[in-house]
Amino acid sequence: MADPELEAIRQRRMQELMGQQRFGNQQNSEQQNKAQEDAKREADEQRQVMLSQILSSQARERLARIALVKPEKARGVEDVVLRAAQMGQIVEKVSEERLISLLEQINNQTTKQTKVTIQRRRSVLDDDE
Protein backbone atom coordinates (compact mmCIF):
# COMPACT_ATOMS: atom_id res chain seq x y z
CA MET A 1 0.00 0.00 0.00
CA ALA A 2 2.54 2.61 1.12
CA ASP A 3 5.82 0.94 0.15
CA PRO A 4 7.81 4.14 -0.61
CA GLU A 5 6.80 5.60 2.76
CA LEU A 6 7.71 2.41 4.55
CA GLU A 7 11.08 2.29 2.81
CA ALA A 8 11.75 5.92 3.80
CA ILE A 9 10.94 5.09 7.43
CA ARG A 10 13.29 2.10 7.31
CA GLN A 11 16.10 4.21 5.86
CA ARG A 12 15.62 6.86 8.54
CA ARG A 13 15.65 4.19 11.22
CA MET A 14 18.84 2.63 9.87
CA GLN A 15 20.54 6.03 9.87
CA GLU A 16 19.47 6.59 13.48
CA LEU A 17 20.86 3.21 14.51
CA MET A 18 24.18 3.82 12.76
CA GLY A 19 24.46 7.24 14.41
CA GLN A 20 23.76 5.72 17.82
CA GLN A 21 26.64 3.27 17.52
CA ARG A 22 29.08 6.17 17.58
CA PHE A 23 28.12 7.38 21.07
CA GLY A 24 29.13 6.11 24.53
CA ASN A 25 27.50 3.15 26.22
CA GLN A 26 25.30 5.05 28.66
CA GLN A 27 24.21 7.62 26.13
CA ASN A 28 23.84 4.85 23.60
CA SER A 29 21.46 2.85 25.77
CA GLU A 30 19.34 5.92 26.49
CA GLN A 31 19.25 6.79 22.84
CA GLN A 32 18.42 3.20 21.94
CA ASN A 33 15.45 3.28 24.31
CA LYS A 34 14.30 6.54 22.78
CA ALA A 35 14.85 5.22 19.27
CA GLN A 36 12.91 2.06 20.09
CA GLU A 37 10.04 4.14 21.45
CA ASP A 38 10.14 6.34 18.36
CA ALA A 39 10.18 3.33 16.07
CA LYS A 40 7.27 1.79 17.94
CA ARG A 41 5.35 5.05 17.75
CA GLU A 42 6.05 5.34 14.01
CA ALA A 43 4.97 1.75 13.44
CA ASP A 44 1.72 2.40 15.32
CA GLU A 45 1.11 5.53 13.29
CA GLN A 46 1.76 3.63 10.06
CA ARG A 47 -0.60 0.91 11.24
CA GLN A 48 -3.34 3.45 11.96
CA VAL A 49 -2.88 5.06 8.55
CA MET A 50 -3.21 1.70 6.83
CA LEU A 51 -6.30 0.83 8.89
CA SER A 52 -7.91 4.16 8.02
CA GLN A 53 -7.40 3.32 4.34
CA ILE A 54 -8.86 -0.17 4.72
CA LEU A 55 -11.77 0.35 7.16
CA SER A 56 -14.85 2.51 6.72
CA SER A 57 -15.48 5.16 9.37
CA GLN A 58 -18.22 3.07 11.04
CA ALA A 59 -15.95 0.03 11.15
CA ARG A 60 -13.14 2.10 12.68
CA GLU A 61 -15.52 3.43 15.34
CA ARG A 62 -16.69 -0.08 16.21
CA LEU A 63 -13.11 -1.32 16.40
CA ALA A 64 -12.21 1.60 18.67
CA ARG A 65 -15.09 0.70 21.01
CA ILE A 66 -13.94 -2.91 21.06
CA ALA A 67 -10.40 -1.78 21.85
CA LEU A 68 -11.67 0.03 24.95
CA VAL A 69 -13.09 -3.19 26.35
CA LYS A 70 -10.80 -5.86 24.90
CA PRO A 71 -7.61 -4.38 23.46
CA GLU A 72 -6.09 -7.78 22.65
CA LYS A 73 -9.13 -8.80 20.62
CA ALA A 74 -9.12 -5.49 18.72
CA ARG A 75 -5.41 -5.91 17.99
CA GLY A 76 -6.07 -9.42 16.67
CA VAL A 77 -8.84 -8.17 14.38
CA GLU A 78 -6.57 -5.38 13.14
CA ASP A 79 -3.86 -7.96 12.39
CA VAL A 80 -6.31 -10.11 10.43
CA VAL A 81 -7.58 -7.15 8.41
CA LEU A 82 -4.07 -5.87 7.65
CA ARG A 83 -2.86 -9.33 6.64
CA ALA A 84 -5.84 -9.78 4.31
CA ALA A 85 -5.21 -6.37 2.75
CA GLN A 86 -1.53 -7.14 2.20
CA MET A 87 -2.42 -10.43 0.53
CA GLY A 88 -4.87 -8.63 -1.76
CA GLN A 89 -7.99 -10.27 -0.36
CA ILE A 90 -9.57 -6.90 0.44
CA VAL A 91 -10.29 -4.79 -2.61
CA GLU A 92 -12.73 -2.27 -1.11
CA LYS A 93 -13.16 -0.64 2.28
CA VAL A 94 -14.31 -2.99 5.01
CA SER A 95 -17.81 -2.07 6.13
CA GLU A 96 -19.14 -2.38 9.65
CA GLU A 97 -21.22 -5.42 8.67
CA ARG A 98 -18.18 -7.21 7.26
CA LEU A 99 -16.23 -6.33 10.42
CA ILE A 100 -19.04 -7.80 12.55
CA SER A 101 -18.98 -11.04 10.54
CA LEU A 102 -15.20 -11.17 10.92
CA LEU A 103 -15.57 -10.68 14.68
CA GLU A 104 -18.11 -13.52 14.83
CA GLN A 105 -15.74 -15.83 12.95
CA ILE A 106 -12.91 -14.99 15.33
CA ASN A 107 -15.18 -15.52 18.35
CA ASN A 108 -16.23 -18.93 17.04
CA GLN A 109 -12.60 -19.93 16.59
CA THR A 110 -11.48 -18.74 20.01
CA THR A 111 -14.46 -19.80 22.09
CA LYS A 112 -13.32 -22.11 24.83
CA GLN A 113 -15.48 -25.04 25.77
CA THR A 114 -15.83 -25.46 29.50
CA LYS A 115 -16.81 -28.70 31.07
CA VAL A 116 -17.77 -29.06 34.70
CA THR A 117 -17.60 -32.45 36.38
CA ILE A 118 -18.79 -32.99 39.91
CA GLN A 119 -17.21 -35.73 41.93
CA ARG A 120 -18.87 -36.59 45.19
CA ARG A 121 -16.70 -37.44 48.11
CA ARG A 122 -17.52 -40.57 49.93
CA SER A 123 -17.94 -40.19 53.58
CA VAL A 124 -16.71 -42.71 56.10
CA LEU A 125 -20.26 -43.13 57.32
CA ASP A 126 -21.63 -43.99 53.88
CA ASP A 127 -22.00 -47.71 53.30
CA ASP A 128 -22.11 -49.29 49.90
CA GLU A 129 -23.37 -52.51 51.36
TrEMBL record:
Residues 35-46 have a biased composition (Basic and acidic residues). Residues 22-34 have a biased composition (Polar residues). GO terms for cellular component: cytosol; nucleus. GO terms for molecular function: DNA binding. Residues 19-46 are annotated as: Disordered. Belongs to the PDCD5 family. It comes from the Eukaryota. This is DNA-binding protein DDB_G0278111-like. Transmembrane segments: none annotated.
